[in-house]
Amino acid sequence: MTTYPTRCSRCDAQSVTDERIVEHVCGHVASAGAFDDGCEKCRHRADADTLADLQTVERCLECGHRSPLEPDQGMIGPVPAVSFPTLPTPEQNLSWIPARFVPESQLRRGVLSTALIAMVLVAGIAGAVSVTPMLEGEPADEASVDADWAEYDSIVIFRNDDIQPWYNQEELRAVDDVFIERDVPVTLGIIPDTNGSAALTEDPELCEYLQSLETDHPGQFEMAIHGTTHEPVTDFYGASEFGGLPEAEQRERLAEGEALLADCVDSPSSTFIPPMNTYDTTTVEVLAESNYTAVSGGQWFTDEYYDTDNETYFEAGGLTHVPETQAFENWTAYEEEGGDDSDVPFHDLETLTDSFDASHEENGVHVVMLHYQYFTTDDRLEKLESLIEHMQSGDDVGFLTVEQFAEGLEDGTVEETDEGWRILEPISAVSR
Fold first, then answer.
1. Helix or strand holding residue 314 (H, E)
2. What pLDDT score does 217 carry?
3. Mean confidence (pLDDT) of the chain
4. Quick one: how far is CA 208 from the chain centroid?
5. How far apart are CA 376 and CA 111, in angstroms?
């Protein structure tokens, strides 16, 4: 790369260098240097035979700002014959990003840098396209979407497990409607092949519905993989689908589940939700190798297995562990009553709000696990609405998905402070 004796238009640093933007044969587009170790999307080799030059841009080594080269500095490769729009500044519109250029496996760069890279690629390839800001119900107009830091006392994450084919679909939609109406994001734990006999792809209606959530409510519903078959394969910590299995078998099960989920939804996330809330260090190694960034089991399990003493999140094995801290269902009462699966009791509202209040008072991360199939009455749905209303009453709670939280910690857009948390909003789109 060549450094020019010019100053950055954003930070005024004299450290501007040229950078080649290339496209791999699989369709992944990034800077040439990003392919030094192969393609991060398809994991295949990347050399002169598999990479096509798209254009060259200027990049500031200080702040990461990118902009098109001046005409007299030349362009590399077969640049498409299209007009080049002016790159927005941070104060201008950051919302036009083509879906094919949103990183699929990880967001390990700053949010603004990622957005700017995408806009540069759009300038050379496709033209401006609108992307809806996270948690906004209507598409973004041409007005600017500025990123600002928001301060919160605590963070809440909702995790809705066991989404599967042909199973209580009305209840699933009813629970999702509560989150839509309250404008709260939620991580969906989706089972790719229930008991090895009910694959997601065999229920096109469910897949179409999940895809509609991604399209109509971008950023609000995280599509996370919830094991593969959701079977208790081992007796690891009571029961586990992955924990206790050999590495090769865990890798094979994960790959099978990933393929099914990718055929059902548009943006599988980088979060893994282990069935029975249990997993082992081998699971974490396999997940890290597969570009996952977060695992969300149970706090009772992580406290014992990782000796974490009620930690609501921690780093281990290259992943952020974000265990559930409060179940909506009262599993202790369920076991004592010996009830059937259709009549799982819920905690009373006071227990649920008190649990949140304690976490909020400690500026914590509160992860609520629920299972949509048990919300069979209006009273149960109203209990969920009342809990969310209680959480939102003070306007000092940040609501995120597991992936948004983990990715935010990694790229610096979610920060823990002495008095709570701060989040750079709107949250950038994330997907594997």
1. strand 314-316
2. 96
3. 81
4. 20
5. 40
| For residue 426, cis peptide bond before it (omega within 30 degrees of 0) | yes
Instruction: Please give the Cα distance from 399 to 184 (Å, whole number).
Output: 6
Q: What is the mean pLDDT of residues 355-379?
A: 96
**SS3 of residue 402 by DSSP:** helix
The tokens describing 160, both together, are 């809705």
What is the C-alpha separation between 250 and 255, in angstroms, rounded?
9
**323, 297 contact by CB (below 8 A):** yes
Q: Are 430 and 269 in contact (CB under 8 A)?
A: yes
Contact call for residues 35 and 23 (beta carbons, < 8 A): no
Q: What is the pLDDT of residue 17?
A: 80
* Nearest Cα residue to 209 out of 230, 188, 195: 188
CB atoms within 10 A of CB 285: 16
In terms of C-beta density within 10 A (0-12 exposed, 13-18 middle, 19 or more buried), how is residue 80 classed? exposed
- Non-local CB neighbours of 417 within 8 Å, separated by 6+ positions: 151
Confidence band of 33 (pLDDT split at 50, 70, 90): confident
Q: What is the pLDDT of residues 242-280, one digit of tens each?
A: 999 999 999 999 999 999 999 999 999 999 999 999 999
- Cα–Cα distance, 185 to 235 (Å, whole number): 33
Residue type, 432: R
Nearest to 377 by CA among 174, 178, 162, 164: 174
pLDDT cut 70: percent of the chain above it: 72
How far apart, in whole angstroms, are the C-alpha atoms of residue 396 and residue 392? 7
The 10 Å Cβ neighbour count of residue 106 is 17
42 pLDDT band (50/70/90 cuts)? low
3-class SS at 212?
Answer: helix
- How confident is the model over 55-77, as pLDDT tens digits? 776 777 766 555 555 544 444 44
Closest by Cα among 183, 177, 161, 164 to 212: 177
Question: How many angstroms separate the Cα of 371 from the Cα of each of 176, 379, 416?
Answer: 11, 15, 29
Instruction: Please write the tens of the pLDDT for every residue from 296-339.
Output: 999 999 999 999 988 999 999 999 999 999 999 998 888 777 76
Question: Residue 362 — pLDDT band, cuts 50, 70, 90?
Answer: very high
Taking a C-beta distance cutoff of 8 angstroms, is the pair 30, 118 a contact?
no
Check if the beta carbon of residue 179 is closer than 8 Å to that of residue 400: no
d(CA 337, CA 139): 48
**Contacts of 169 by beta carbon, 8 Å cutoff, 6+ apart:** 205, 206, 209
